Amino acid sequence: MPADQRSLLDTRALTTENITKLFRMADKFRERSEAHGFFYDAARGPVKQGSKVVALLFFEASTRTRLSFQAAAYRLGLPVLTMEFASSSLSKGESLSDTIQNVLAMGPDALVLRYGSSAELDQLIPRLDIPVINAGFGTLAHPTQALLDAYTIYRERGQVVGERVLIVGDILHSRVARSNFDVLQKLGAEIGVCGPARFLPPGSEISGIRVFDSVDDGLRWATVCMGLRIQFERHQQEASDDDHVARQVAEYHRSYGITRARLQSLIPEGILMHPGPINHGVEFSSDALEDPRCRVLQQVTNGVLIRAALLAKTVGMSELV
Ligand code: NCD
Predict the structure, then answer these.
(1) How would you class 133 by CB atoms within 10 Å of its CB: exposed for 0-12, middle for 13-18, buried for 19 or more?
(2) Atom of ligand 1 minimally distant from the CA of 142
(3) Ligand 1 atom with minimal separation from the 229 CA
């Protein structure tokens, strides 16, 4: 199969059937992992991978996504090459494209890539002769996060179709929200958004999506609430002092922060999610995380299963595991 058909650059290339297949494989890995600690079939034993190697190149900060891909690869028996941004030759002035071409010359079988905004990479990536998995491209897309979010909803709520998912926060700058719009709508969920006007995308991007001015109204409507971090690093640099930022953050928390008190408006069987990293006292109060409906760490656990399913498919071992 050509490399570009095995790549996952955007969820828009996935059909509902592709997504449910990944969920079924993640379920299989979960059952095996609970039974004997590995993702492979106990009767068949680990798959002999030969020379298959996955390279993880993260040009932007990451904890969950990078380690989750790494854990997924190890559990499948796939060795990984990992580049640490701070200690790479990028700090000696090497360009992103040169870095990628050099890693490709080492012959990995798939590339997992995260970067901020780069016209150079936007052009290069679709031309590469190797499958690429998007681990977060700027504000554009974060496919594996949206897949693990939808998988978490399916596991915790029993289905995605008909769920009412309220996404609260800095939606305009969020690649997580953008990919979730696509995956959740494909799977038949309804979506609502809530946040200050400056954090909402233009109408064309949120057609068919409900906009709530009040987070309390949104929570009364929702079965799932997903908080998002304010993406300060992606905002246009405004001339503002620390006091001004602190005032804005406090004002945001007062109007849109998810607190234990506010969560009384969410149905008892509802769930609370967040892709991380969480800024305590901003998008969530610390006590909100103690709410029994909070599924933030289940999202992280599910991320390993979903990424393993995707890696297995990408390097052509889905039939073997
Ligand atoms: C998100 C990201 O990097 O896009 N985190 C993640 O991958 N789990 C969200 C964020 O940075 O706020």
Answers:
(1) buried
(2) 4
(3) 12
pLDDT tens per residue across span 21-73? 999 999 999 999 999 888 888 888 777 766 689 999 999 999 999 999 999 99
Structure pTM?
0.95
283 sits in the region (left: phi over 0; alpha: psi -120 to 50; else beta) called alpha
| Tokens representing residue 158 in the block | 């029993």
Query: For 107-151, how does the pLDDT look when each residue is reduced to its tens digit (9 = 90+)?
Result: 999 999 999 989 999 999 999 999 999 999 999 999 999 999 999
CA of 220 to the centre of ligand 1 (A): 26
Q: What percent helix, strand, coil does the chain show, rounded to 5?
A: 45, 15, 40
- Looking from the CA of 81 toward its CB, the CA atoms found within 13 Å total 19
Residues with CB under 6 A from ligand 1: 64-65, 136, 142, 145, 175-176, 229, 275-276
What whole-number distance in Å separates Cα of residue 216 and Cα of residue 36?
A: 44
Cis peptide preceding 277, ω within 30 of 0: yes
